[in-house]
Queue: 2 jobs
Job 1
Amino acid sequence: EIVMTQSPATLSVSPGERATLSCRASQSVSSNLAWYQQTPGQAPRLLIYGASTRATGIPARFSGSRSGTEFTLTISSLQSEDFAVYYCQQYNNWPLYTFGQGTKLEI
Amino acid sequence: EVQLVESGGGLVQPGGSLRLSCAASGFTFSSFPMSWVRQAPGKGLEWVSAVTGSGGNTYYADSVKGRFTISRDNSLNTLFLQMNSLRADDTAVYYCAKATTSWFYDCWGQGTLVTVSS
């Protein structure tokens, strides 16, 4: 099983500042990595796929990148609606997908 | 607009059964693989089961293998999850998710809560 490790578990940032979230895969997943945002009581929402492609309707302040098995989600200027939990997910081996444990982004 | 609506959750005793449904609309249901993903209270996301577009191939996490059965009725645009021999650690919100042709999930339902307790 591919293990996805996210860091930090909680990130405290002020509105307008930049947030950087990390995700590491235990083995190569190529660029088959997605990021999801989840607010309380809601379903996950796709933000990024292919490690760096924004999903339809996602603001440009969200960006993703890859370096080997290290992945990064950057939110350039935090808005109030961005405070949520973020999950990375590898989809390299259908359907045995695995998720990171999540990063809570708080004010 | 793509929409997934789950139903069928509720309170069940340990050892009991439930059948979840996920009604799909806004896309050609039979063309896409579908999955169930669950989230225990206050925890992260766990893949549970998946089925190909035709329904011919099914897959399960080790934690549910032999107890859960995934199926789909493409004529009804509906995905199912039959859950038997339920245990306390099956308590979670269950989401259905649509996979794209590139295999990532692009749409999720709102979830249905399953509580296993005596």
Job 2
Amino acid sequence: DAGVTQSPTHLIKTRGQQVTLRCSPKSGHDTVSWYQQALGQGPQFIFQYYEEEERQRGNFPDRFSGHQFPNYSSELNVNALLLGDSALYLCASSFENRASYEQYFGPGTRLTVT
Amino acid sequence: GQNIDQPTEMTATEGAIVQINCTYQTSGFNGLFWYQQHAGEAPTFLSYNVLDGLEEKGRFSSFLSRSKGYSYLLLKELQMKDSASYLCAVTPGGGSWGKLQFGAGTQVVVTP
């Protein structure tokens, strides 16, 4: 049973560029959430996708956008990259109707903006 | 406001017990998670508390007091592999299922 997978593992971009990160949820999961984790900090919620729509959003600017596909996989897009966007981006998946609402995290994408 | 506080770092000896406290003040509350995160890796689920009281899972136990906005994670018989960051996270109430609000994490260092 494959867990949550993310690609790429590492990415280096220049300020002002755009980036797309990808996530495949754990088998059987239908909900995908994205988090940003700065060094030494806890993950910060960016947004959540369910049934191909953004259902909740954290305190992140519109430069951060996403998409969920019919197979439940998801993309995170960040436009006009800033140095402060350098972080570990984590994808987490869950099953909407599961009582515990436990989220399974992927290994993350380490984004460095120079 | 939203505030989740936990100590920055704790050091303990192999075989000992360590208790990591977490206090929270959030606009809503439905449950509290504890995750373990080794350096450079994804957070992994340890426990989920909804009701007041103690939940025990092997060497790890988690306690919740909803009225006090307080939780702790108890790690017993510490092993070197327990050296990691421990994250406390709250799920708000209402329609915010799955939106985890994390504390900054507590770095536990286990020494021989």
